[in-house]
Amino acid sequence: MSALFESNLRGLPLLGRGKVRDLYAVGPDHLLVVTTDRLSAFDVVLPQPIPGKGEVLTRVSNFWFARTAALIPNQLSGIPVSQVVTDPDELAQLGERGLVVRRLAPLPVEAIVRGYLIGSGWKDYQGSGTVCGIALPARLRQADPLPRPIFTPSTKAAAGTHDENVDFAHIIGLLGAELAAQVRDASLRIYEESAAFALRRGIIIADTKFEFGLDQDGRLHLIDEVLTPDSSRFWPADQYLPGSSPPSFDKQFVRDYLETLDWDKTAPGPELPPDIIARTAAKYREAEERLTGA
User: Fold this and answer.
1) What is the mean pLDDT of residues 52-81?
2) Buried (b) or exposed (e) across 206-241, using 16+ Cβ within 10 A?
């Protein structure tokens, strides 16, 4: 399977490269988002791509955009990539990694929803009995389901820095009370409905991150990626056992490998062995197959 570490499109202005996505301008009202096969871990882009990863993320996001369209508008424009990238070689380079989206004003918030006690939430809970300041019942175990999903937002950090967990009052200060409530309520509704669907397909969505933007009329839209193995923690339901960290379909698999190395989590990242790359690619593909039936 081919891999794309970095896109190069001559016919469109490059606006920037993120950890995973390359952004191009498509006139004043649209963007071309290219989800590459780059993999970041601990906020460091690793030197090798994961073949096919960007195509999986794009297809999975499109799947969820379609399923959640009745809940909230989203960034999709309906414009095919072939309409804005006409060079056959460049189209072949992109494969299914490209998406033409509407230009929206992104909100400076990572909208995180947690349904299970894991990751940094588990560490918080062990020390304080709370997650991001939200009190939880005593004697919960690692990976236990929470009594109900919780909204634990963070600020969007500048490049090279880490996101910062904040309370809801901070989000009100950033967005205003009405918009903050819209973001919280939309995040919880999308998560709850989507997690129930995924569970029927054999996947537990332990937690996830959403991003939102506003159109010119101030209407809230779902943007970026949605419920992918990069933005979410996916567990196989048939292997779930609370009390320990369950096996994962997401890049936690790579993080766990990196934790075994003598690496200080700063750039440059270490080279991954071929076996880790192949197994990671297989996990992404299996997550898509379970969710979408593709």
Assistant:
1) 97
2) bbbbbbbbbeeeeebbbbbbbbbbbbbbbbbeeeee
